[in-house]
Amino acid sequence: MGTFAGHALPGSFFLIFGVWWTIQIFIRYYSSIKHHIKFTSSLTFPCHCGRLKNVPLQPCLIIFFTVVGFSLEIYTGTSDGHLSEPGNAHHATMYFFFGVMAVIDLMVHFEVTLPKDVEYAIAAIAFFVEWILFEFHLYDRSQLDVLVHTLLNYVVAANVLSILVEMKYRGKILAPLFRSYMVCLQGTWFWAIGFILYNPNPNAEKWNEEDHEQLMIATIFV
């Protein structure tokens, strides 16, 4: 994941689903007002696209993204048949838990009997695992690298909090909107980190990763 593409992929993942959730939350909210029914949020939303209405599009897309991400991390981190890059192992673990979250969402879609709110519990665990992995992911790195990933970790922690809040207040629209906003923010953060640390433009001026003023600027960019 120590590349621009390695940050752009999860950044796109979080951005796409953050925007998707935001749109679906508003659709459900205004539909509930129109039909005079109680608004109730969820982690999985159906697609309102004709024939795809009954297709579990969201969990299937998440599974696709996580399989691609997991496979790339294992492939690029493997040397002589052994996983030689601990950082890649961290990222692969993150993708794995989001894949588990998607499988649970798939079971919810097909109305498999599950404990109440289990999808929220698994989603909170997935973000919590991501938070723990990034917390212990920054040893022996430059000040700039540590800073931008530490700021990212604050957002990941807020994602855990947002899911727990939503699980408690599923009838309030602000709870799921808080969750979708934090997921979008995490996506933009990944993209910003990619440009700051691994700018794909060969002519771009490189950041001084130990300069205090540039550290301050990075907090604004991210």
TrEMBL record:
- Give its localization: Membrane
Could you list the residue ranges that cross the membrane? 12-31, 52-72, 92-110, 117-134, 146-165, 177-198
Would the keyword Glycoprotein turn up in this protein's UniProt record? no
Arranged from A to Z, the UniProt key words for this protein are: Membrane, Transmembrane, Transmembrane helix
Q: Which domain of life is it from?
A: Eukaryota
**Protein's membrane topology:** Multi-pass membrane protein
- Signal sequence span per UniProt? none
Question: According to its UniProt record, which protein family does this protein belong to?
Answer: Belongs to the TMEM45 family.
**What PANTHER family is this protein classified in?**
EPIDIDYMAL MEMBRANE PROTEIN E9-RELATED (PTHR16007), TRANSMEMBRANE PROTEIN 45B (PTHR16007:SF15)
Q: What name appears for this protein in its UniProt entry?
A: Transmembrane protein 45B
Q: Which organism is it from?
A: Tegillarca granosa
